[in-house]
Amino acid sequence: MSKKKKDLQDIKDVEVIEEDTMGNEKNEESKFIKFIKELIPYVIILIVVVLIRTYLFTPIIVSGPSMKPTLDGGELMILNKLDDNFERFDVVVVDIGSEDIIKRIIAMPGESISCENGIIYVNGRKQEESYSQGRTSDFEKVVLKDDEYFVMGDNREDSKDSRHLGPIKKDSLKGSTKLVLFPFSDFGNIE
Fold first, then answer.
1. How far, CA to CA in Å, does 97 sit from each of 15, 83, 101, 172, 179?
2. pLDDT number for residue 29
3. Which of 102, 120, 154, 162 could form a disulfide with 127 if both were Cys (CB 3.0 to 4.6 A apart)?
């Protein structure tokens, strides 16, 4: 083979190698773009779940016996973070700094609350409590400010609540909870 033909063959071989290399690069780029396109829906789902959990609803687990007989330790519930129009007897989640606790609102902002001989009085009127368990220990009259709530556990003999923590500021209430998800035997809304 003459030198010219050999040089031409070498040039053709180089062009074929360059085309193969460019084809591989385009193929690699195509695979990467396809991967990114497939990944986008999962990223969107993850972002939506994080936003819902952060700002709207989040699962919570009841810890301890303080809400018996209404709630048992270990029950899984949904916290509604949108609810900030709290009413008397709502079950709420309270941020006390070191932990979150689940309690019931007994007295509202601007009201007074006391307990004499195991009977709760709000603004001097006896409160009927069909949900509580155990004897409520007596405490002196507490007058709540415009942004304070008095919360108590339904199990009055075993509950860390406003009797020990004092009135709870509205901004410490993370939301309300009414729906038990698990165990399935307890599924549904609570009273």
1. 70, 20, 10, 9, 24
2. 72
3. 120
Residue 96 DSSP code: -
Dihedral of the CA atoms 119, 66, 129, 189 (nearest 10)? 170
Among 68, 103, 132, 176, the active-site one is 103
- Domain match, 112 and 169 both: yes
Structural domain harbouring 131: 81-177
Same domain as 95, residue 36: no
* pLDDT of res. 14: 47
Concerning whether 185 is annotated as a catalytic residue, the answer is no
The answer to whether the peptide bond before residue 183 is cis (omega within 30 degrees of 0) is yes
Q: Catalogue the E-assigned strands of the chain.
A: 57-61, 76-80, 91-95, 100-107, 112-116, 119-122, 125-126, 139-143, 148-152, 168-169, 173-182, 188-189
Catalytic residue flag (residue 5): no
**What would the mean pLDDT of 159-182 be, rounded to a whole number?**
93
